[in-house]
């Protein structure tokens, strides 16, 4: 089975049956080897530096009703908030002082009627911090809106496809959302020149190994610059609140497989992984991830951006906890890389 790991490292591709073997093997020696090779490839491209992104959770107001998400519109147990433009600028100001050179604006989804307000925020960020990358993670919009935000200075966009299987997608989302529209949005983002990120929740309700294979083949073909993979974690006020959480084992296997398929990809070791275990973040990096996204949102609002139960947002998950993050990384021989960390193809010599 180790030969399959060598094959995906050399060719960046496995067929469905070969992927199935690596996704289902219970042989710990093979899984360790998979992580080891993915880590070696990540180090060949990025050294032992880990890029940091300052995450600003702009709003928990959302028009969507995704069955897994704690900020879905039908969840009436959430106190809703939206940061003001001034609050966003204060987050960036303190983030810049801490050393961040990428800001990620993430939030629930609004209709295009708020697009101009967001465009104003992006323009202001671009004017005040011209050396920083601006990443958006604000859901599905029209091509015109994506174009407007790109023109205002946004560089990157994260939009997880969530699952590439249309039936599985339909089981996780309300009827008004469609897999085809998600794919269309990803295509537009790429065409408009965004560094584009996609990805999935690992262990989402109804997910099978076949779905994961489909997701991996899609990711390989789509060639996103960023790949966001985090375990599904139940949120008690959602229809899927009783479903078991995804696992660290499957999430880190996927980090390694994606790293070997797309060696230059930017792969965050996600907050959801860190929520499952205090060393989840480090396990992700040791499996080939190379980005972390500490929380820069105002502390008073972090509890309200409750996508899932127990979401970590203090200590090394918080921008204020950077020393703690640096110390954690040092225990595995890694350090924070303070550069913008843009996608660069074939970084290795
Ligand atoms: N609205 C934007 C969007 O749809 O891309 C960005 C915000 S959305 C809350 C960000 C991501 O959170 C989603 O892509 C989803 O994968 C993740 N998420 C939502 N609920 C989750 C849960 N219960 N467990 C783990 N991840 C979750």
Topology:
Blueprint: H1 2-11, H2 16-24, H3 28-46, E1 49-52, E2 54-59, H4 85-98, E3 102-107, H5 115-128, E4 133-137, H6 143-152, E5 156-158, H7 166-172, H8 179-191, E6 195-202, H9 209-222, E7 226-231, H10 248-261, H11 271-276, H12 280-286, E8 291-292, H13 322-331, E9 335-337
Parallel strand pairs: 1-8, 1-9, 2-3, 3-4, 4-5, 5-6, 6-7
Helix pairs in contact: 1-3, 2-9, 3-10, 5-6
The chain binds S-adenosylmethionine.
What is the class in the CATH system? Alpha Beta
Q: CATH topology, what is it called?
A: TIM Barrel
CATH architecture: Alpha-Beta Barrel
Q: Ligands in the structure?
A: S-adenosylmethionine
Mean pLDDT: 95
Side-by-side strand order of the widest sheet: 2-3-4-5-6-7
Could you tell me how far the N terminus lies from the C terminus, measured between alpha carbons in angstroms? 28 Å
Oligomer: single chain
Low-confidence stretches: none
Which structural class best describes the helix and strand composition? alpha/beta
Radius of gyration: 19 Å
General shape: globular
Could you say how many structural domains there are in total?
1
Largest sheet geometry: 6 strands, parallel
Strand content: 5-15%
**SSE succession:** HHHEEHEHEHEHHEHEHHHEHE
Percent of residues in helices: 40-55%
Give the full name of the CATH homologous superfamily: Aldolase class I
Q: How many strands appear in the DSSP assignment?
A: 9
Treating each run of at least 4 consecutive H or I residues as one helix, how many helices?
13
């Amino acid at each position: 089975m180790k030969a399959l790991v060598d094959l995906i490292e050399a060719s960046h591709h496995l067929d469905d049956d070969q992927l199935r073997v690596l996704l289902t093997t219970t042989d710990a020696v093979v899984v360790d080897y998979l992580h080891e090779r993915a880590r070696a490839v990540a180090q060949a491209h990025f050294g032992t530096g880990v890029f940091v992104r300052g995450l600003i959770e702009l709003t928990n107001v959302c028009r969507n009703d995704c069955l897994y998400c704690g900020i879905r519109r039908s969840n009436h147990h959430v106190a809703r908030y939206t940061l003001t433009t001034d609050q966003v600028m204060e987050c960036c100001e303190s983030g810049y002082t801490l050393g961040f050179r990428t800001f990620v604006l993430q939030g629930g989804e609004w209709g295009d009627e708020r697009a101009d307000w967001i465009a104003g925020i992006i323009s202001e960020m671009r004017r005040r911090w011209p050396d920083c990358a601006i990443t958006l993670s604000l859901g599905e919009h029209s091509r015109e809106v994506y174009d407007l935000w790109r023109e205002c200075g946004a560089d990157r966009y994260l939009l997880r496809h969530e699952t590439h299987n249309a039936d599985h997608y339909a089981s996780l989302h309300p009827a008004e959302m469609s897999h085809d529209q998600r794919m269309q949005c990803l295509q537009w983002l790429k065409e408009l020149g965004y560094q584009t990120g996609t990805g999935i929740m690992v262990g989402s309700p109804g997910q099978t190994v076949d779905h994961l294979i489909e997701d991996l083949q899609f990711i390989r073909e789509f060639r996103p610059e960023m790949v966001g993979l985090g375990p599904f974690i139940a949120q008690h006020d959602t229809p899927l609140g009783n479903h078991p959480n995804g696992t660290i084992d499957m999430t880190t296997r996927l980090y390694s497989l994606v790293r070997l398929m797309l060696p230059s990809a930017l792969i965050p070791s996600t907050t959801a992984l860190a929520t499952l275990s205090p060393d989840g973040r480090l396990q992700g990096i040791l499996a080939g991830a190379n980005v972390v996204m500490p929380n820069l949102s105002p502390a008073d609002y972090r509890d309200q951006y409750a996508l899932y139960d127990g979401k970590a947002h203090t200590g090394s998950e918080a921008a204020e906890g950077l020393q703690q993050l640096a110390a954690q990384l040092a225990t595995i021989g890694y350090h924070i890389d303070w550069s913008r960390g843009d996608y660069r193809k074939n970084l290795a010599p």
